[in-house]
Amino acid sequence: MTDLTSLTLAEARDRLKSRAISSVEITEVHLEAIERAKALNAFVVTTPEKALDMAAASDARLAKGEGGPLEGLPVGVKDLYATEGVHTQACSHILDGFRPPYESTVTANLWRDGAVMLGKLNMDEFAMGSSNETSYYGPVASPWLPSNWTRERARAALAEGKRGLLSPGGSSGGSSAAVAARLCLAATASDTGGSIRQPAAFTGVVGIKPTYGRCSRWGMVAFASSLDQAGPLARTVRDAAIMLRSMAGPDPKDSTCSPAPVPDYEAAVGRSVKGLTIGVPKEYRLEGMNPEIEALWAQGAEWLRAAGASIVDVSLPNTRHALPAYYIVAPAEASSNLARYDGVRYGLREPASDIVDLYERTRASGFGAEVRRRLMIGAYVLSAGYYDAYYVRAQKIRTLIKRDFELAFERGVDAILTPATPSAAFGIGEKGSEDPVEMYLNDVFTVTVNMAGLPGLVAPAGLSSEGLPLGLQLIGRPFDEETLFTLGEAIEQSAGRTKLPEAWWG
Amino acid sequence: MSVDLSAVRRIAHLARIGVSEAEIPHLQGEINAILRFVQALEAVDVEGVEPMTSVIPIRLPMRDDVVTDGDIADKVLANAPLTGDGFFLVPKVIE
Question: A249 FRET partner, CA 20 to 30 A, in A146, A489, B13, B95?
């Protein structure tokens, strides 16, 4: 019998529906897998009792021939989503002990559709990071190993602070590692500058950041409100489509959430790409670009051409301004959003003699170094005398970035193909310790999409010479996630399903 | 643009983050590295460009102006580090 953790979400769904397996059975198998993989540190909290209760309820519904689109399927939830009565800290010390008395809209939608919650997944603190190393709960080890590493060496490294092991990317590093290590069938993630797509590329799984407003942000711990979007990580394009259909949808509690009905994304998987026009933007060809990434990109265009799409060159001249502008807009919004962590209403509180001292002590010990740095940058660019020079200018540049994409789409381009990341996964502790900007450069291909509010999908497209996964990104028109699922599956078919690493961790 | 040591102290206070004197030179270096990184934007021609206010054209929904929430003081206070008689407690603010 096949290991139930190796099933895709779609396969598991079909077997549950035909009653070939039960939800309790597949949930138990995943809880055991999580237990054996504890040292990877992908989950920060597991909720086995809740999971088994939900699974039993799903089995009862399935037995009556009832159940939603995700009935009985065990999934993981990024620690950024408020889950009623369950640990929700965005992996920050400042939210110590926080148990929300409410449920986020996205997770409520998953439970409405029958999904089973396994627990909360590790992430960079407040989603600020690209390697999962800023988490208060420590880094996550990727299930992928550096080339020529033996199982023994890897297990020894796990026991010694994960030195030399690879990062699963970030900020959704717990989600990507858990999906790639088969600890859950799929997971929720979130993306402010690349936090779904870069971890997908690093771990050989599929991730989509939908259009801004496609998913409700209600109950998601806010980082940068004009950029944040929820999205799934899953092992196939079809699985990501199934997840997004349930996660997305109108919500009166988020005024930026689109009232448009959610299409059946799964129906877009397997459609022909014939007649679609794919733009290849020359500005993404960076000086000193990794030749492997460049070759993969060309290969991706060739696959889509062979499948019947036409490939055209497009120009997005303001691309290079996106990352610097992001590092003004995102910290500015963060400094405003994170002002709420004051030691008074929830979470950590450091003893102090007066109220300002209480704020300053609590925030000094509650926030990690990266969060403190970004909050200070944010306070600076919003402060009197600097607001116009930094913040307003960055928002104007954002208009230019969005206009570039609009012009490309007006010329008949259906989607844009780019690399996902400048390289394959790097090692834990390898980047950003001297210069924070070194880590920021990871988001160079993904951040434009957030700045323009567009949907972006990353699908695995092959392996590097070191045997590590590499991904390609497809960028779509606003609210045209369907075309991305169609094209993503075409890439998946051409590249062949990525063979995920065997369970060396236990 | 770059920040000096006194600017770092001022920014930290604006952000209500306590910093020790020993940390300030290091923070200065990091903040200036980020400011150098964003400096390229100064050269971009933004004449006549509207700053972005909404990334996706979406009409803000209207609803009836009625109370839709409330009477959940217990839930609001449930996660507070210190409460008393249905209030959040903080160190004395007024002498």
Answer: A489
- Which of the four pLDDT bands, split at 50, 70 and 90, describes residue A1? very low
The ipTM assigned to this model is 0.96
In a domain, B53, yes or no: no
- Taking only the tens place, the pLDDT of each residue in A36-83 is 999 999 999 999 999 999 999 999 999 999 999 999 999 999 999 999
- pLDDT tens-place string over residues A74-94: 999 999 999 999 999 999 999
Q: Which of residues 32-91 of B touch A (CB under 8 A)?
A: 33-34, 37-42, 44, 46, 49-56, 58, 60-61, 63, 72, 75-76, 78-82, 88, 90-91
Residue B16 lies in a domain: yes
- The number of angstroms, rounded, from the C-alpha of A173 to the middle of its chain's C-alpha atoms is 8
- CA-to-CA dists, residue B59 to A258, A314, B11, B56, angstroms: 9, 31, 36, 9
Q: Give the model's pLDDT for residue A2.
A: 64
Instruction: State the residue range of the domain holding A234.
Output: 4-271+456-495
What is the gyration radius of the CA atoms in chain B, in angstroms? 23
Local structure of A226: helix, strand or coil: coil
- Residue A358 and residue B90: Cβ atoms within 8 Å? yes
- Parent domain of B30: 5-42
Q: Does B94 touch chain A (CB under 8 A)?
A: no
Q: Is the pTM of this model over 0.95?
A: yes
Cis peptide before A171 (omega within 30 of 0): yes
* Residues on chain A touching B40 (C-beta within 8 angstroms): 320-321, 324
Q: Is B92 on the interface with A (CB under 8 A)?
A: yes
Tell me how far CA of residue A267 lies from CA of A142, A205, A378, in angstroms: 32, 20, 42
For residue A182, is pLDDT > 70? yes
Question: Residue range A282-305: average pLDDT?
Answer: 96
Strand runs (DSSP E) across chain B, as ranges?
83-84, 87-88
Whether B58 maps to a domain, the answer reads: no
Query: Which of B8, B20, B24, B30 best tests the A interface by mutation, with the highest count of A CBs <10 A?
Result: B30
Q: How far is CA A148 from CA A390, A425, A429, in A?
A: 47, 15, 20
Chain B residues inside the 8 Å CB shell of A398: 51-52, 55
For residue range A263-275, list pLDDT tens digits in order. Answer: 999 999 999 999 9
Q: How many domains does chain B have?
A: 1
Q: Is residue A411 in a domain?
A: no
In chain A, % of residues over pLDDT 90: 96
Residue A24 lies in a domain: yes
- For A378, the token pair is 């944010």
Contacting residues of A for B58, CB less than 8 Å apart? 213, 256, 258
Residue of B nearest to A322 (CA): B41
B contact test, residue of A329, A396, A437 with most B CBs within 10 A: A396
b/e sequence A226-245, b meaning 16+ C-beta within 10 Å = bbbbbbbbbbbbbbbbbbbb
Does some domain include residue B29? yes
| CATH number for the domain that contains residue A255 | 3.90.1300.10
Chain segment A358-416, per-residue pLDDT in tens: 999 999 999 999 999 999 999 999 999 999 999 999 999 999 999 999 999 999 999 99
Q: CA-to-CA distance for A82 and A80, rounded, in angstroms?
A: 7
Residue A360 belongs to some domain of the structure: no
What's the number of domains chain A is made of?
1
